[in-house]
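Morning - adenosine-5'-diphosphate inputs below, output right after.
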Amino acid sequence: MYAMEINNVTYRYDSGVEALKNLSLQIPLGAKVALLGPNGAGKSTLLHHLNGLKVPDEGSIKIMGDQITKKSAPAIRRKVGLVFQDPDDQVFSGTVWDDVAFGPRNLHMTEEEVEEVCHAALGNVGMLEYKHTPPYQLSYGQKKRVAIAGILSMRPDIVILDEPMAFLDPAGQDEVAGLLQGLNYMGKTILLSTHDVNFAASWADMVILLKDGELLTAGDISLLIDESYIKEANLHLPIIARTFKMVPDYADALPINEQDAYRILFKMFNEKDKYIY
Ligand code: ADP
């Protein structure tokens, strides 16, 4: 069984724009997936399909084996949580606690269950001490974490995030990256859209490249150093790969991320007479 199965999905907006064109993809359970592509590629449109917010004009989508239909969408939304790009679209209650409790209460959980899931969700994102704080008093990064907690409180198996790193400062990005890593260790499948090739290269285990509503390719992170795809998707090589491109003999064996670079450097130091003058 896959976490998500997208079969020949086409979607047109009322304006006539075909935002997804005959898209097919399978995402394994437990994967950490980065969805990349230029603005207008169809990333948000695709993410909105995966928790039933939008329904395909053609084709079908299965979440953990169950097809999304208008009828099944509410149940599917308990399995797939979608975190919007702007936390202000998601975080609106009087206090952080009420905000995170909104989903569970809507699902008619008992107050005891609500207490348990909200406590765990706010603990997961490191925001428990702010539970009585009104969201408008929080920083952007803190609001983002509350938005994520609001999804976690519904205990989804799959967490989808639309550009989670956008507008966060570097420390905030590191916090969210650590949080997403932790959620994956807990067994959750994570799919996020991003423009950040460096983050995708060091975090993801699968990448999907979209352009003009079509799938360019999907596979492991080595695609991020495949210059033909990178160019076609209006991306650039990870900075570590660009650095190694300057080193003689290594321009054709580029590292994807820091660990990969360390492996290559280790080898280079063993051949240091050749590189260090
Ligand atoms: P991305 O997230 O990759 O930037 P989107 O999914 O937002 O791409 O958009 C895909 C295409 O659909 C673009 O051509 C965009 O202009 C169009 N689009 C997005 N939202 C709407 C809308 N509400 N009405 C009409 N067209 C839209």
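Note: The pocket of adenosine-5'-diphosphate is lined by residues 13, 15, 17, 19, 37, 39-45 (CB under 6 Å).

O.
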